[in-house]
Amino acid sequence: MEKNKDHRLRFPFLVGLLLAIMLVFIFCLYNSQIRHGDEYRARSIASNATRENVEASRGILTDRNGKVLVTNQQIYTLRFSREGFSDNESLNAAIWRLISLCKKNRVSWTDTLPIPPAPLTAISTPIRPMTLQLLSKITS
């Protein structure tokens, strides 16, 4: 008889325990999805993005597809001072040699000398008779 009592008590106890566990799971699910869902979503998005500093090697930098982003260009800066030359003629000769050397080797340069370019000069070309007739009609 006592066995039947144990069976009768055991079943409601297991059902109650199962219901209690289900209630705990439902409460945890409600807490994580409804109450704190936005907060957890923001944390998840923030944890997916990471920042990593990578030391770049010298040379050409490319993206992951091989497209060149940054290249190196060798540049020389030359400055002339009068102190190294005895007179203006030797200074001008040195500058002219440098310009000739750059032209010979097809090297481009930026001229920052504050001298304006030479003024425009008139080029004499023969005028055609038709142009003379037009000019005489305009002026008269």
How is this structure best described in words?
This protein has 4 helices and 2 strands. The chain is mostly helical and 140 residues long. Among the domains are: 2-48; 61-104, no CATH class. Strands 1-2 form a two-stranded antiparallel ribbon. The protein starts with a helix and ends with a helix.
Rg to the nearest angstrom?
45 Å
Spatial separation of the terminal alpha carbons: 142 Å
Which overall shape is indicated by the principal axes computed on the Cα atoms?
A: rod-shaped
User: How confident overall, as mean pLDDT?
Assistant: 77
Strand/helix succession = HHEEHH
Order of adjacent strands in the largest pleated sheet? 1-2
What class would the helix/strand composition place it in? mainly alpha
> What proportion of the residues is helical, as a percent range?
40-55%
Number of helices: 4
What fraction strand? under 5%
Main beta sheet: 2 strands, antiparallel
The number of distinct β-strands equals: 2
| Unreliable stretches covering 5 or more consecutive residues | 130-140
Provide a compact summary of the structure.
It contains four helices and two strands. It has 140 residues and is mainly alpha-helical.
Task: Give the SSE layout.
Blueprint: H1 2-35, H2 37-48, E1 61-62, E2 68-70, H3 88-104, H4 129-139
Antiparallel strand pairs: 1-2
